[in-house]
Amino acid sequence: MLMRRNEFPTLLRRTNRTNPVSLTNWLDEVFEDAFNWTEGTFVPELNVYETDKMFEITVELPGMNKEDMDISVDDNVLTISGERKAHHRDENNGRRYHRIESRFGTFTRSLPLPNVIDADKINATYENGVLAISIPKLKEKAGRKVKIS
Fold it and tell me: Least buried of 16, 106, 137, 145, by fewest C-beta within 10 Å?
């Protein structure tokens, strides 16, 4: 079931918008983008994870070839775009389709990135229908633990 924007859980609502570096704000932007769907548009499922050293993004793109997608980073915004082509459009294959529930078409997903990332070392792999993007954090900006004495 798709949640409407005003039904979004209270815990995930925006807080502290004044700090652009805030991971909370960045994750809120990601969640808002994920739930801001347009009817009839192909919107692949996207997951964002964080470790001490990097951010990891996975995008569910079954049935696509890696040549059919593009990834770019511009001004700390990661953009993933591509097109899943409909194989059922070939009318000469002798098939008559009675139901098609697969989503096809072009898509674009853009995610703002925090300024603690090393954009020059972003890596992407595509395997078994899942696009995995690893975005390392800059060592000097990744933060550190403070020991309590």
Answer: 145
What is the DSSP code (8-state) at residue 10?
G
Q: How far is 29 from 20, CA to CA, in rounded Å?
A: 11
pLDDT(88) > 60: no
Which domains does the chain show, CATH number per domain?
43-136 (2.60.40.790)
pLDDT tens for each residue of 51-83 = 989 999 999 998 889 999 999 999 889 999 998
CA angle 90, 45, 119 (to 5 degrees): 110
Which tops the pLDDT comparison, 127 or 103?
Answer: 127
E strand or H helix at 60, and its extent?
strand 54-60
Helix (H, G, I), strand (E, B) or coil at 145: coil
Residue 132: which H helix or E strand, with range? strand 130-136
